[in-house]
Amino acid sequence: MDSEISRLQKKVENYPSPSAYNRLAELLRVSGDAERAEAVCRRCIKEFPRNGQAYVLQANVEVGRGQRGEAVRLLREGIANDPRCYGGLRMLAELCVEDRELDQAVGLLQRILEFRPQDEQVRSRVGELQQRLAGGFNQNEAPKPAAAETSTDEDTIDLSQMGSLTTATRPTRRPTPPPRALARVSAGSAGGPLNGLVSQDGVRGAVIADSHGRSLSEQGLPDGTADLLAALANDVSSAADAVKDAIGGDKLISWTIIADQGQAVCYRRDGDDLTLAALADTSVKAALLELRARQALIDLGAG
To answer: Which residue, among 167, 274, 171, 278, has the nearest Cα to 218 in the 3D structure?
Structure first.
């Protein structure tokens, strides 16, 4: 872990990106260095205020210190700046459950379903809480302990250190949902914006990522691969943009990594906040992949 922390520290100094900051802060927190983790989160929030996961990671630090009021404040601020912050919505919802504010928890989880309608875990949790509301929640009943969540870097929610909570403040005004709410598409799906690309011979799968390197829509990729590919696309593009800014060049629109057993191709249209990345056999022409990727983004109205 120490070598990874050292590597990420150098990376954020030379090529800062939200995903690198998030990973570094999480490793520092897990290693017990809460002070440095907090410092990394604060720096990330200053440089990338719309990176909601930085607020989540700092909120976890505050929960570990027993500062739950500050944690709630950070989560609300993070969600206001990043309305699709999955980790922030999940964590704040569970805090509300602990605080017996089930109606607020349901509202927060329903926001997730606006951009992840196929998230069965969240949908099941909403149904459970709605049943408790319909049956009448016993205010004297001890709240159900919140289970720790473990997921990808952008979705991490750590509630393992939670005890009793102070009363949460009322939520801030609900932000307007983003215009493009994309569902994750399972492998073999006959529809979705990625179908034209993934149905091409030799294409193994693809993902559409947002400006923070989070997977918004995926098709044909094994479990976990979409999040890794989305993060890779964001990190490479961000690093290239930083270099091109320094030398006065245009932003990187596309790039390809070719290896013995396949290739990874990334494409984004100038001015877009969405990136499409795909894995394919080396036999597939890069020009064809770019054409299909361009069409997928056009179909999304990403122009």
So the answer is: 278
The H-assigned helical ranges of the chain are 2-14, 18-30, 34-47, 52-64, 68-81, 86-98, 102-115, 120-135, 195-198, 225-247, 286-299
Q: Which two tokens stand for residue 106?
A: 């349901």
Q: What is the CATH number of the domain that holds 205?
A: 3.30.450.30
- pLDDT score of 190: 44
**Enclosing domain of residue 99:** 2-133
Q: Are residues 255 and 183 in the same domain?
A: yes
Sign of CA dihedral 178, 270, 226, 284: positive
For residue 175, the tally of other CB atoms under 10 A from its CB is 13
Question: pLDDT tens for residues 6-43?
Answer: 888 888 888 888 888 888 998 898 888 999 999 999 99
285 vs 281: CA distance, rounded Å = 9
Which pLDDT belongs to residue 195? 81
What pTM was computed for the model? 0.51
- Residue 101 to residue 72: CA distance in whole angstroms: 13
Q: Which of 215, 230, 228 shows the shortest CA–CA distance to 266?
A: 230
Task: Output the pLDDT for position 89.
Answer: 94
Residues 126, 6 share a domain: yes
Name the stretches of the chain with pLDDT < 50: 138-154, 157, 159-190, 302-303
What contacts 205, CB < 8 A, 6 or more positions away? Answer: 187, 198, 218, 219, 220, 221, 222, 225, 226, 278, 279
| CATH number, position 81 | 1.25.40.10
Of 232, 226, 244, 224, whose CA–CA distance to 19 is shortest? 232
**Structure confidence at residue 137 (pLDDT):** 57
Q: Which of 236, 237, 216 is nearest to 227 (CA)?
A: 216
Within a domain: 62: yes
Non-local (6+) Cβ contacts of 196 within 8 A are: 292, 295, 296, 299
